[in-house]
């Protein structure tokens, strides 16, 4: 018998809200977290709007020791620790004692690029011959696994502690990796999620590719327009999302709140073949990933009530909807409700899947589907596939039982997660 896996803790550090309560309220009220940044304007970015968590009011002493705070200059690492520690507390879990680690709990926490600002500072010091001034934290703040190492040490976890990286698919992949470890009985609890650095050194490459919107610098809250006919590219974002996954047996024994159940999912790659490339998906692989996720979850395609898509506000949005139609064999009025949270806070890159998964879980908990912002003018090719009323423009009261959440990343990599309202018996 495979273990059932449930979500018992949530944490988030997002452009539209730092902390679960603020994040939830912003989603319900359809409040955008995308703003204009003067530093992008000074650097002559074509796109000068972005999504960046506001951590100015956060007391970092509640998350880091004084030693850890010395020279701390990695935004992604900070976001990840805030979200991860908050999720652990939300699950009513505590740090293990100073003698023994918690052997039953582990971490899969992903990132794309970590510590860009710290790395830049280190390069300048090295170029000046000031190697001794690098300090003792430059390595751990710039290595990819720095985020899982920090969280593992702060919480004292003794099961697998690792970092994954698969571009925009990272966060959703991390959830599935943790899910599989618990399902197989190798761990009781896994802290899963992902984080992404903020700032021009992360976003500059995308601006150079000319895939970011350039006409909304005066109206930043209108810039991210998934599924819209006037979509002009994705808005870059940053932050972190975290979930505590736990075996149902452990959660029931502890008597804690259960937000949702992870029924299953799938991960694959299109191999950059048959139309797939470094930046474009192999459509057959996307459809296969969705179908394998449904089979792994043990449900029928008709059972999916809502989709939280990858949907980045690019020309690929219509293609993604077509892939969902093909994979589910559902169109028009039969198509599930569909939304994209990138309209609320931009495309958070490696953190996208985890932040959006936190929001997807909140939809199940709240009996609501959150709005698609800036989608008054749905792309006409999408309306040929999906009924207009299946694309919510405002928060909709709807008791969804099963939500599919997908991420599709650079490198032609895919992940699809099936989340369910928790039921005592299945």
TrEMBL record:
**Where does this protein have coiled-coil stretches?**
none
Q: In the record, what lineage is assigned to the organism producing the protein?
A: Bacteria, Pseudomonadati, Bacteroidota, Flavobacteriia, Flavobacteriales
| The UniProt record lists the keyword Plastid | no
The molecular function terms of the Gene Ontology recorded here are: acyltransferase activity
The record's note on quaternary structure and interaction partners says:
Homodimer.
InterPro entries listed in its UniProt record: Beta-ketoacyl_synthase (IPR000794), Ketoacyl_synth_C (IPR014031), Ketoacyl_synth_N (IPR014030), PKS_Beta-ketoAc_synthase_dom (IPR020841), Thiolase-like (IPR016039)
Tell me which positions the record assigns to the signal sequence: none
Pfam families registered for this protein in UniProt: ketoacyl-synt, Ketoacyl-synt_C
Q: What is its EC number?
A: 2.3.1.41
Substrates-to-products reaction catalysed: (3Z)-decenoyl-[ACP] + malonyl-[ACP] + H(+) = 3-oxo-(5Z)-dodecenoyl-[ACP] + holo-[ACP] + CO2; a fatty acyl-[ACP] + malonyl-[ACP] + H(+) = a 3-oxoacyl-[ACP] + holo-[ACP] + CO2
Instruction: Please report the name of this protein according to its UniProt entry.
Output: 3-oxoacyl-[acyl-carrier-protein] synthase 1
Please name the source species.
Croceitalea rosinachiae
Q: Which UniProt keywords apply?
A: Acyltransferase, Cytoplasm, Transferase
Q: Which SUPFAM superfamilies has this protein been placed in?
A: Thiolase-like (SSF53901)
What family does the entry list? Answer: Belongs to the thiolase-like superfamily. Beta-ketoacyl-ACP synthases family.
Q: Where in the cell is it found?
A: Cytoplasm
- According to the entry, every stretch annotated as the Ketosynthase family 3 (KS3) domain falls at 2-421
């Amino acid at each position: 018998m495979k273990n059932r896996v449930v979500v018992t803790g949530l944490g988030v550090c997002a452009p539209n809200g730092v902390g679960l309560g603020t994040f939830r309220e912003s989603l319900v009220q359809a409040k955008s977290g995308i703003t204009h940044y003067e530093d992008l304007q000074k650097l002559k970015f074509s796109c000068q709007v972005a999504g960046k968590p506001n951590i100015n009011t956060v007391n970092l002493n509640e998350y880091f020791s004084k030693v850890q705070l010395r020279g701390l200059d990695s935004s992604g690492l900070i976001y990840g620790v805030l979200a991860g520690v908050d999720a652990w507390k939300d699950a009513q879990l505590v740090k293990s004692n100073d003698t023994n680690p918690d052997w039953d709990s582990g971490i899969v926490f992903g990132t794309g690029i970590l510590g860009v600002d710290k790395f830049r500072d280190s390069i300048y010091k090295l170029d000046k011959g000031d190697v001794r001034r690098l300090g003792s934290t430059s390595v751990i703040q710039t290595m990819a696994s720095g985020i899982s190492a920090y969280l593992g040490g702060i919480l004292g976890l003794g099961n697998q502690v690792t970092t994954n990286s698969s571009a925009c698919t990272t966060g959703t992949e991390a959830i599935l990796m943790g899910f599989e470890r618990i399902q197989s009985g190798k761990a009781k609890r896994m802290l899963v999620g992902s984080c992404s650095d903020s700032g021009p050194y992360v976003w500059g490459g995308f601006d150079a590719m000319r895939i970011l919107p350039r006409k909304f610098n005066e109206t930043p809250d209108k810039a991210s327009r998934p599924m819209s006919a006037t979509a002009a590219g994705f808005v870059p974002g940053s932050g972190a999302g975290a979930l505590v996954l736990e075996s149902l047996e452990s959660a029931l024994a502890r008597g804690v709140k259960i937000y949702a159940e992870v029924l299953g999912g799938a991960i694959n790659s299109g191999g950059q073949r048959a139309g797939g490339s470094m930046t474009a998906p192999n459509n057959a692989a996307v459809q296969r990933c969705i179908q394998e996720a449904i089979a792994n979850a043990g449900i029928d395609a008709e059972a999916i009530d809502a989709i939280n898509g990858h949907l980045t506000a690019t020309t690929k949005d219509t293609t993604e909807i077509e892939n969902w139609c093909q994979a589910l064999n559902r169109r028009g009025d039969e198509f599930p409700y569909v939304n994209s949270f990138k309209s609320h806070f931009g495309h958070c890159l490696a953190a996208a899947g985890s932040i959006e998964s936190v929001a997807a879980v909140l939809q199940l908990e709240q009996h609501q589907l959150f709005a698609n912002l800036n989608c008054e003018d749905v792309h006409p090719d999408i309306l040929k596939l999906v009924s207009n009323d299946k694309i919510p423009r405002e928060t909709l009261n709807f008791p969804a039982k099963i939500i599919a959440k997908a991420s599709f990343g650079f490198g032609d990599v895919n992940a699809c997660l099936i989340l369910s309202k928790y039921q005592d018996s299945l």
